Each structure stands twice: as C-alpha cells, then as structure tokens.
Amino acid sequence: MILAPRNWGVRTYNEEIIYDDENxxxxxxxxxxxxxxxxxxxxxxxxxxxxxxxxxxxxxxxFLTAIARxxxxxxxxxxxxxxxKGKRTQTFNYNCNKQRPEHCGALSIDGPQxxxxxxxxxxxxxxxxxxxxxxxxxxxxxxxxxxxxxxEEQIAELQALWEAKKVRAASYVTTLDDLNARKNExxxxxxxxxxxxxxxxxxxxxxxxGWGNLSIExxxxxxxxxxxxxxxxxxxxRGGRFNAARAEPxxxxx
Length: 254
Prior knowledge:
The strands form 3 sheets. This protein has a 3-stranded mixed beta sheet with strand order 3-7-8. By secondary structure, it is of the alpha+beta class. It starts with 11 loop residues before the first strand and ends with a strand. It is built from 6 helices and 8 strands, in the order E-E-H-E-E-E-E-H-H-H-H-H-E-E. Helix 2 crosses helix 6 and helix 3 runs antiparallel to helix 4. The longest helix is centred in the last third of the chain and has 25 residues.
C-alpha cells in the first residue's frame, strides 16, 4: 500500500507513472492516502536500497523502461533479465515486447551499458544547467534557429513527396535519415546553448548527494526532463559488441 503511486495521488498506466506535456507527474483527482511526494521519493529510495540487498527476489525497476524506444516500430522498450543455462543472471537487456501485437519484438540492446551511456549524458546536462542558472537575461540568442527551421521544412516537404508517391523508397529513407541526423545535431547544439530543461530538476539535494545516491524513480524523473526519448536503432549484425551509436537521444525542443 505504501509503495503504490496511486495512494500518493500519482496517476499510472500499465504500472508506469504518467507525465504531462511538461514532463511533470500527472496527479489524480482523488484524495491520496499519503500527501507528500517528497516522502514518497524517500520511500522509493528505501525500496531501491532493499532491492539491491535482495537481488534475485525483488522486482527490479529499469532506468530506461519506456524512455528507450524501438527504432523499428517506435514502441517503448522494457527491461528483461538475461538468462544463462536456465538461470536468471544479474544483468539485463532492453527489448521490444514481442508479446504485444503493436510491437515488432525484433530489437534488443544491452541494458547496463545503455543505462551508463544515458545516465552520463543526463548528468552532464544537469551539471551544465546548474552552471547556466546564472546566465544573464540578455544572453545572446541561439544563432542557428533559421538553420533548424530550414531542416524541419525539408523534412516536411520530403514526407509530403513520399505520401504523394513522388519519391523512391531508397531515396526517401536515405534523405530522411540524413535530415533527421542534422536536426538532432541542431537540437543538441540548442540544448547546450540554452538552459536545458533539466534545470527544473536541479536541487541542492541533487547536487550535493550526486546521481548515484538517487533512487531509480528520481533518476527517471530527471531523465524525462532532459530527454523526450532515446531511440535505439537496429543493430547491423546479431550478437555484436555494444554500439553507442545505436542510441539517439531526443532532447526537448524548449
């Protein structure tokens, strides 16, 4: 009862906390049993500490569940433990759920290495945001706004041509990949120039305690403020080494 988000007034769907367009937790319109979300965060931290002590018996929450998305079908990925010789190991993958008809079920990536990659990125953005809190109000505007608008217009024009069947599939896919790569590079550059959305998640507690001392749920909340998603592109071969280039972060545009 204490661990259930609903009893703290938090809306959920399929056991995942629901966030609004501003990536804030969506609260229900019912009277919660427990009133303070700050206390709920402490309860989650205690839960994670207990889970680390009871590996193999506790339900594990994975950092990038539903944040990581399948690059084939767009569905949210879910963490699943790896099995070896019929036994569950202490490591895991993020998989596209093949048991759901709307998911392709054809994509997987190593969980711990992906978590580390994205956590480093999010923490870097948080540290940058903490320094940029002192940016003066008359700071220079981002100089590449017109370039970003031009790329977005090219993408829209290309998609219109594709829908009208006026472009070949090979040309469409190749050009769209190039344009999306340029767009994401520009969004990353703008995120570095302006105060990242993660600034809203910065507290003295976070900066003093450090990322590693936060519960997974607190880490996920901060990650959602920095990133809309992390798109995982298909691997070029099966069973290969972890390739960080497969993970494409999608930053908030404002």
